[in-house]
Design goal:
Elements: H1 9-13, E1 20-24, E2 27-32, E3 35-41, E4 51-54, H2 61-67, E5 72-73, E6 87-90, H3 96-108, H4 126-131
Antiparallel strand pairs: 1-2, 2-3, 3-4, 4-6, 5-6
């Protein structure tokens, strides 16, 4: 039996996009249009990182923050030491569903500030693996 993703309402808001959902970091990554768009997380450990993570770049934080005032950095990715490229709407944010709905609308409209093209995994050949031992 597959584990249900948290905040499943997001899937309805992203309709009719063709979505792919993959496990990532014990969470669920949501892909659309060839990009990772969101990660949804609800775990017992590090509850400060629970919510909807937004794939974006630091160059977009300021403009996104104007539209999503409760958006914050995913500090778990830097051990709380610095702002990260990933941003999030925490599950306890006063405007959680409203903000997440807005993020979904941005994705639907093709907002370039959201979504990252995943890096290609480079597989090592058997000879490369042997040479590193």
């Amino acid at each position: 039996m597959k584990k249900k993703i948290p905040f499943e309402f997001i899937l309805d808001y992203l309709h009719p996009l063709e979505l792919t959902i993959k496990p990532m970091f014990g969470c669920h990554a949501i892909y659309a249009n060839g990009k990772i768009q969101l990660i949804v997380r609800k775990k017992d450990d590090h509850s400060d990182a629970n919510g909807v993570w937004i794939a974006t770049g630091k160059e977009h934080h300021e403009s996104l923050k104007q539209e999503l005032p409760s958006m914050q950095s995913v500090y778990i990715l830097s051990d709380g030491k610095r702002e990260t490229g990933w941003q999030m709407i925490h599950e306890d944010a006063y405007d959680f569903e409203e903000a997440v709905t807005m993020v979904c609308q941005m994705i639907l409209s093709g907002d370039e500030r959201i979504g990252k093209i995943p890096k290609k995994k480079i597989r090592k050949s058997k000879s490369e693996i042997r040479n590193t031992k």
